[in-house]
Amino acid sequence: MILIAGPCVIESRDSVFRIAESLKKYDEDETIDFYFKASFDKANRTSLESYRGPGLEEGMKIFEEIKKEFGYKTLTDVHESHQVQRVSEVVDVLQIPAFLCRQTDLLVAAAKTDCIVNIKKGQFMVPADMQYSVLKVLKTRGFETCDYETSKKAGVWLTERGSTFGYGNLVVDMRSLPIMRKFAPVVFDATHSVQMPGQGGKTGGDSSFVPYLARAAAATGVDGFFFETHFDPASALSDGPNMVRLEELEKLIEQIKAIREIVQ
């Protein structure tokens, strides 16, 4: 089971190391393929005044320290093509943000690296149309067919994070998981799926629904899960309302693993 977990954004070296230390149990679990996640720059914040992160160079230094200290595989998002090469020198997975999932130059730049490419499904996208984003990466890497096994071999994932439902809300259509899994391994992002955009210049959310959606996705059948987590979500500088508290994550992971065993 793929597990992507960590804070939304690098707030400080101390806070990110504190969170990383708390996630060691998952990296040591032989049934989990663990990736530590954090963002060096949140370029799509609602407001200009919102905290974005430490930036590219400082962020890469912190990722290098995390890899040296904990030995984790790491994941971070890239927003512009010129960032890709530098980031690929440090992290293992390049994540394409949902709003940029059709951005051809960004997808092609990521495909030219040796990293796994994790494409987040846009909130506005028809699930079946995500195959064309996958194909942009596959064709750049020399593959002509788009199916689950080819994408797995080529290192291309898709991540579901909900769909826009009117104004200020997202819903998760569980049908999207098997639809997208026809042409790539699928990760379910349970924390971004409970976002509530457009809450007075910022994005809100309701993390109480995270366990329900995660358990439903486990029953539907996916390859992995994505959780943003924090020791104090209320004080987090980005996505706090959606995050799972570190001490609550372990119980949820155990529930997911139990459901997966039944389904499999």
From TrEMBL:
Gene Ontology terms: biological process: keto-3-deoxy-D-manno-octulosonic acid biosynthetic process
Source organism, top-level taxon: Bacteria
Subcellular location: Cytoplasm
Keywords, alphabetical: Cytoplasm, Lipopolysaccharide biosynthesis, Transferase
Main location: cytoplasm
GO cellular component term of the entry, any: cytoplasm
EC number: 2.5.1.55
Family: Belongs to the KdsA family.
Protein name according to UniProt: 2-dehydro-3-deoxyphosphooctonate aldolase
Native source species: Hydrogenimonas thermophila
Taxonomic lineage of the native organism: Bacteria, Pseudomonadati, Campylobacterota, Epsilonproteobacteria, Campylobacterales
